[in-house]
Write a structure and sequence with these properties.
Strand content: 5-15%
Distance between the termini: 14 Å
Function: Catalyzes the reversible transfer of the terminal phosphate group between ATP and AMP. Plays an important role in cellular energy homeostasis and in adenine nucleotide metabolism.
Subcellular location: Cytoplasm
Low-confidence stretches: none
GO molecular function, one term: ATP binding
EC number: 2.7.4.3
Number of helices: 9
Order of helices and strands: EHEHHHEHEHHHEH
Oligomer: single chain
Pathway: Purine metabolism; AMP biosynthesis via salvage pathway; AMP from ADP: step 1/1
Number of domains: 1
CATH architecture: 3-Layer(aba) Sandwich
Bound molecules: BIS(adenosine)-5'-pentaphosphate
Largest sheet: 5 strands, parallel
Shape: globular
Radius of gyration: 16 Å
CATH superfamily: P-loop containing nucleotide triphosphate hydrolases
Helix content: 55-70%
Mean pLDDT: 97
Length: 187
């Protein structure tokens, strides 16, 4: 299966992606995680990306597109993948379309998690206390939510028109949400 998981910051994309990828035995690929690893390892990409992550802004499309193209060329993605956090802009949708067309494959489903804004903020502030992620401050969380609304939410329409989008209630316990995601995949 070739899947996307979308939703605002704190919707549970990463949490659900790891559960689902394990069940389906496909890699979960998080662009945010790859970027954070590059920042930590002080690679050239990490040096370029850090200021965008810290400000809650999107990293420029050319950097992200090259990163994803190279990740999706790796052999473990041949039997499928679950992409978390990509695409986030129309230009990234176009790039993903080209990558998949070049490989002669197509997406199966686009899973979209929906969670109330107050709950998103509470989850991310809670994580800030536990993990200290640099973009989990209240100010940056609000900016990330704005960026999502302005630049990424419009993509839901695109995948809806293509008949790929499946909307999932992301409120409630992690396991309840996983059950809904599994049901959405089986539908
Ligand atoms: P990214 O890492 O993708 O962050 P995000 O979209 O802001 O999402 P989060 O990781 O914060 O939330 P999530 O939905 O994965 O929820 P999670 O499962 O972690 O991107 C970070 C940055 O990288 C971007 O701002 C941008 O700068 C850059 N970037 C990444 N991709 C890019 C792209 N394509 N283009 C350009 N720039 C890009 O859960 C959140 C918390 O809630 C956790 O503590 C979790 O334990 C908890 N939780 C999860 N589910 C539940 C539940 N059901 N109930 C209670 N708590 C829950």
């Amino acid at each position: 299966m070739r899947l996307l998981i979308m939703g605002p910051p704190g919707a549970g994309k990463g949490t659900q992606a790891s559960q689902i990828a394990r069940r389906l035995e496909i890699p979960a690929i998080s662009t945010g995680e790859i970027l954070r690893a590059n920042v930590q390892e002080r690679t050239a990409l990490g040096e370029q990306a850090a200021r965008y992550l810290d400000a809650g802004e999107l990293v420029p499309d050319d950097l992200i597109n090259a990163m994803v193209r190279s990740r999706l060329a790796e052999p473990d993605t041949r039997k499928g993948f679950l992409l978390d956090g990509f695409p986030r802009t129309v230009a990234q949708v176009d790039t993903l379309d080209k990558i998949l067309a070049d490989q002669g494959v197509a997406l199966d489903k686009v899973l979209v998690l929906h969670v109330d804004q107050d709950e998103l903020i509470q989850r991310l502030l809670g994580r800030a206390k536990q993990e200290g992620r640099s973009d989990d401050t209240e100010e940056v969380i609000r900016r990330r939510l704005e960026v999502y609304r302005e630049q990424t939410e419009p993509l839901l329409e695109i995948y809806g028109q293509r008949g790929l989008r499946v909307d999932i209630d992301g409120m409630g316990d992690v396991s309840e949400v996983t059950d809904r995601v599994v049901a959405a995949l089986e539908s």
